[in-house]
Amino acid sequence: LAAMAIGRVGKRFVQGLGLRRGAIASTIAHDNHNLIEADQVSATVTY
User: How do the domains of the chain map onto residue ranges?
Assistant: First the structure.
């Protein structure tokens, strides 16, 4: 575990996608590579 980057967060701006509102999120989980949200219904946004 000492070699893992536990607690480190990288943040970057994204340009060129035409996004005017909202957010983009990404994560790397070594077992699944998916973003995990406890409440998927409240995480869903429709415009």
Answer: 1-47
